[in-house]
Amino acid sequence: MSTAVFTRVRSTLRCAPIYLLLILSTFLTLMTQAAPIKQDAKDTLDSARDGPYNLSVQAGIAGAILIVLGLILCFFGIRFFRVCMFLIGFYFFGNISYIGMVNGGVTSQTLLLVISVVVGILGGLLLVCCSRLGVAVLGAMALYSLGLWILGWQAGGIIHSSTGRAILLGVLAVVGFIFGFIREKETVIIGSALLGAYSFVAGVDFFAHTGFISEADSFINSKNSVNARVGKLTGPEYALLATFIVLALLGMFVQFRWFGRRNFRPAAAAPPQGNVVYTEKPSRFGIFRRRH
Questions:
Q1: Which residues sit opposite 289 in a β-bridge?
Q2: Per the UniProt record, which residue ranges are transmembrane (predicted)?
Q3: What does each C-alpha distance from 121 to 70, 91, 127, 228 come to in angstroms?
Q4: Confidence (pLDDT) at 266
Q5: Assuming Cys at both sites, which of 15, 44, 154, 262 could form a disulfide with 158, CB separation 3.0 to 4.6 Å?
Q6: Rounded to two decimals, what is the model's pTM?
Q7: Taking Cα atoms as reference points, which of 81, 90, 84 lies closest to residue 27?
Q8: Among residues 116, 69, 75, which one has the least CA distance to residue 88?
Q9: Contact 88/141 with Cβ under 8 angstroms?
């Protein structure tokens, strides 16, 4: 009985990217089919949303997705390898499309969200099929996220030059990409923990509005200038920065401790050793033989 249940669970997990695709499609459907709000009701909602928890529909959806998927990545990246590859493709291609559209002048939040999610879904399906490339992309994105975290410890970035920030993020991404080809298992565990922790913290900031996301966005968005930003980080921003590294280390510990010996790729079948002896057994039809 337990064997049958285990087999069914494994077959279900193989289809996890499809299930995630359906979930994300449902979110998009709910968002695009939302009924318009009358102006009086909208003014009332806007006045009620004043403060740190001013949240739009798009931000709420994006924040919930980042939190849930971030926890999956952080603690179960190597355990659910195919899901991990789908999420990496989703984040990578969605992020690339977002950066390109923002720097290209697109200002509609709904358009940015819809196109980024659609491109991310297609990219996730691609990396499920090309998992070796996906591991390298995971390494690049993990160190890229680590670079954003390092820059975020000072208002305007610890590196004030936009060229210097680009060099730091570019070098870290290249190092992570190369490391992903050299040490696959370590890249999956460390990279998924780092990227999952960053995704979780970013999702929390969509609701808390501490400024963590806006500052990270200013590092990669050429339309925003961080050189002119003055002041100091707030307590909630420091709390999210600390949460990132604590959650990442905890995710690494959990994955190395419980899933570190797991082979996330099926082992190749070993060739037969020695001389193989074949015997013949009469079939029920008499004139036919089958070999064993």
A1: 282
A2: 58-76, 83-102, 108-128, 135-156, 162-182, 189-208, 238-256
A3: 16, 9, 10, 36
A4: 58
A5: 154
A6: 0.72
A7: 90
A8: 69
A9: yes
Structural contact between residues 159 and 151, judged by C-beta atoms closer than 8 angstroms: yes
11-19 CB contacts, 8 Å cutoff, 24+ apart: 13/80, 13/82, 13/83, 14/82, 16/80, 16/82, 16/83, 16/86, 17/82, 17/83, 17/85, 17/86, 17/124, 17/125, 17/128
Fill in the amino acid letter for 137. V
Task: Dump pLDDT digits (tens) for 173-199.
Answer: 999 999 999 999 999 999 999 999 999
282: which strand partners?
289
Length of the chain: 292
Give the integer Cα–Cα distance in Å for 222 and 177: 24
Lookup: tokens for 103: 């720097």
User: Is residue 156 pLDDT above 90, yes or no?
Assistant: no
What span, in angstroms and rounded, lies between the C-alpha atoms of 14 and 175?
30
